[in-house]
Write a structure and sequence with these properties.
The protein is mainly α. The protein is built from 18 helices and no strands. The protein is globular, with a radius of gyration of 21 Å. The model has no long low-confidence stretch (mean pLDDT about 80).
């Protein structure tokens, strides 16, 4: 890459085309290789297999590289629309904040679904885009409620209901999560993303309201599911870990929580670094270390301004204000 940057454009493109052609036989070996080769193909202006472009877009999405995800999913979609291409492009557009375009692609993808589970997941992604990117919580909850009436599959309904609980929680109402959450978690206990999302919404409600009587068991189950799904669903896996840390921080001894936060900051995180810095600010302020708390809170706000896949910037602003008030 360094050599390439110093070359004249024509020479650079010729060499890049030769490198890509020689590397194509490695495609499919691993995720990083697919992403690199697909990006090189686009840079060189060479034809790209839509399946490779789609795989690479999904990889870029998982590592929160929104610009690459948009570019690669657009290349896949240019070969003709199908569910996977529309879904990937919609998710990528959401990641970079193009809310309306994302919703349009996801709505088109909904019409191509062939089973209730996929339909439920696609509607959930539309709702998350509206809630966390556009702040249109009421519209998102309305969409989810409408879809819930159409679904009979237990896992699909649990997926939808988990997002209704999240949306109502964003509006300050956690009653549905506390009343329906335990029943849904039990009904959806099969280790899939629907169960994880229910547990995320339920444990958020418990943390916020202080009704912690069953939180320990629910978080323990959530962490088991999250570990199994962390590669496919890194953001939701991070959400349940965030809730676990909030639970730990409610206890007198914060050392375990702080250590977990620091370890997470050193590893790749599905939700980006922002949530962990904001939690570190909260934990450090509770221990009286206000200088480091201010530094962590500011870092959290900066990171969340860049990447905020689960809508935590508003909470980070609150933590920042709290730390400043204590100083």
């Amino acid at each position: 890459e360094l050599v390439r940057a110093g070359l004249a454009p024509l020479t650079r493109d010729q060499l890049l085309a030769e490198v890509v052609t020689a590397s194509l036989e490695q495609a499919g070996d691993d995720a990083a290789t697919d992403l690199r080769i697909a990006s090189w193909l686009l840079d060189a202006g060479l034809p790209i297999d839509p399946d490779l472009a789609l795989r690479a877009a999904q990889i870029a999405q998982r590592v929160l590289d929104g610009d690459s995800a948009v570019r690669l999913s657009a290349a896949a979609l240019a070969e003709g629309p199908n569910f996977d291409r529309l879904f990937a492009h919609g998710m990528a557009l959401s990641l970079v904040g193009q809310v309306d375009e994302a919703d349009s692609n996801l709505a088109r993808a909904e019409k191509l679904t062939t089973d209730q589970a996929t339909l439920g997941t696609t509607t959930v992604m539309r709702a998350l885009n509206l809630m966390h990117r556009a702040g249109e919580t009421e519209q998102a909850v309305g969409l989810l409620r409408e879809r819930s009436l159409e679904l009979s599959d237990p896992s699909a309904r649990a997926n939808i209901e988990s997002m209704i609980m999240q949306g109502e929680g964003l509006q300050g109402d956690f009653s549905r999560a506390l009343e329906l959450g335990p029943e849904l978690a039990a009904a959806a206990r099969n280790g899939d993303i629907a169960e994880l999302r229910v547990l995320v919404s339920l444990t958020v409600a418990r943390m916020v309201t202080g009704q912690l009587e069953n939180a320990g068991q629910e978080l323990e189950r959530g962490l088991i599911v999250a570990r199994a799904l962390s590669d496919q669903h890194p953001v939701e896996a991070d959400q349940i870990l965030l809730n676990q840390l909030l639970y730990e921080m409610a206890r007198p001894d914060l050392r375990t929580a702080i250590q977990s936060i620091l370890e997470r900051l050193e590893s790749q995180s599905g939700a980006g670094e922002g949530p962990w810095f904001y939690l570190a600010g909260w934990a450090l302020s509770a221990t009286g270390d206000l200088t480091r708390a201010q530094q962590a809170a500011r870092a959290g706000l900066e990171r969340l301004a860049e990447v905020d896949p689960i809508g935590l910037r508003i909470l980070a602003l609150g933590v920042n204000a709290m730390v400043l008030a204590q100083s």
